Amino acid sequence: MDFSLFPAIPDDSPISFDNRSTALRLCGFRRVFVPFNGRKKKANAASDLASRWCDICGRDITVGTGGDVNWEHHLRSKNHADNDKLNGPKFKKLTAWFTHPQSSRNVSASSSTLTDNGTTDRQQDTIDVDSRSDACLSDTAMDVDGLPSLTTSMTGDPVGEQSGPPSASLVEHIRVLAADLPPTIPLAMKEDSLAAFSTDPVGTFRAGDVEDPWEMVNTMLHSVLGYAATIHTILPMICHGPLGVEALCTWLERCFQELNIDLVLVESRLEVVCQALRKW
User: Which of 91, 211, 247, 275 could be a cystine partner for 198, CB 3.0 to 4.6 Å?
Assistant: First the structure.
């Protein structure tokens, strides 16, 4: 293209480069190539100000280039723990599951199925257990009352009707699920993950340098169960015996009773443990 057709723009013209680019485009140029002036822009320092939103604290937490390390430090901080106690989690409480136990005995006559002999597979509450076992049922009928119930503790009382606090009911519920595990689950050894809970939580707290026992409990749960624990990460840890799930239950009992740990603070992680136990 013959550039002589366009008026020359002197270098000392008050027209800026952007204005000259606009003038050239008005003259017919669709694309203007900006020459490289030898200066580079400074590196974007936004990563130094990177932040994450904390639902518990209700504010942005600056994590910078440290990322997960700084975020983990915030989650272990005393301010976060205090806010967690005040605000609590935003999800449905696991303890609400215990408040309305459904008894398998309260079944209406319309929901009972008849066997070949005309008897029902569920007998009325007034019938004695021995008489139920003597009832003539078909080969395919199943006595649902004979199956273990998740709402019934090892003592036979519904979990939701126990007189103890919700934390004790939850620990008992974990024990019930552990007792229902198949015999193929191995016996826990001292090198297994859950064996770490066979320690004394009160002694660990007193020997540590933290002011709040919740910080010790939170660190312990993170180190053993994992920060982002899932059913698939918990399943390989499950073992029988005093160094297995029973060690976790005993450790939790002492934390609730002697260190006054609020159930709300550990509820979400214990829910994952219960889901993993049911998975078996």
Answer: 247
Residues 52 and 70 in one domain: yes
Q: What is this structure's pTM?
A: 0.45
At 104, list the tokens: 């398998």
Residue 76 is part of which domain span? 47-88
Same-domain check for residues 82 and 155: no
CB < 8 Å & 24+ apart, contacts of 143-152: 144/104, 145/104, 145/105, 147/104, 148/176, 148/180, 149/104, 150/176, 150/177, 150/278, 151/98, 151/101, 151/102, 151/103, 152/101, 152/176
How many Cβ atoms are within 10 Å of 9's Cβ, its own excluded? Answer: 12
